[in-house]
Design a protein that fits this description.
Strand 3 and strand 4 form a beta hairpin. It contains three helices and four strands, in the order E-H-E-E-E-H-H. It has a four-stranded mixed sheet, covered by helices on one side. The chain has one domain. Helix content is 41%, strand content 19%. With 140 residues, it is an alpha/beta fold.
């Protein structure tokens, strides 16, 4: 049986700065809104149906490069989470508008979840579609 956390969330997202640069006031709001919207997609798509974990935690590292795949921690036997981390490039983004930061975080979260979904054979079709929409809108 998979351990469950003492809450009902299925996605946890946080960020940490690897540089002296900090994002502006939009950072936390962007994380929380992405977490809520993407968690809904995960649940509606059946992502967790056959997963060996109950929920996923993602630490976004505000750094100097964009990772294409996350780093993995061990699935927690106590809380049932799969810990992931992924670095994003925030150089020169200190004064960015809300939508730019939102998009940077969304793409990183989706890349991490899609990679984990492939690894653990979860349904990632909806996540792939959402990532493609994000990438297409960034090109405009």
């Amino acid at each position: 049986m998979i351990a469950k956390p003492p809450h009902n969330r299925r996605l946890g997202v946080s960020s940490v700065s690897l540089t002296m640069q900090r994002l502006n006031k939009h950072g936390m709001r962007c994380l929380n809104e992405n977490k809520d919207e993407i968690e809904k997609v995960l649940l509606e798509s059946g992502f967790y149906k056959n997963a060996p974990f109950w929920w996923i935690t993602i630490v976004i590292k505000d750094g100097l490069k964009n990772d294409d795949e996350p780093k993995y921690g061990r699935i927690s036997k106590k809380y049932g989470d799969l810990p992931l981390s992924i670095e994003v490039d925030i150089q020169g983004k200190r004064h960015s508008e809300y939508f730019e930061i939102f998009s940077i975080y969304r793409i990183a979260i989706l890349k991490a979840l899609i990679h984990a979904g492939r690894k653990y054979k979860c349904n990632i079709e909806s996540l792939n579609h959402l990532l493609q929409l994000c990438l297409d809108s960034d090109l405009d």
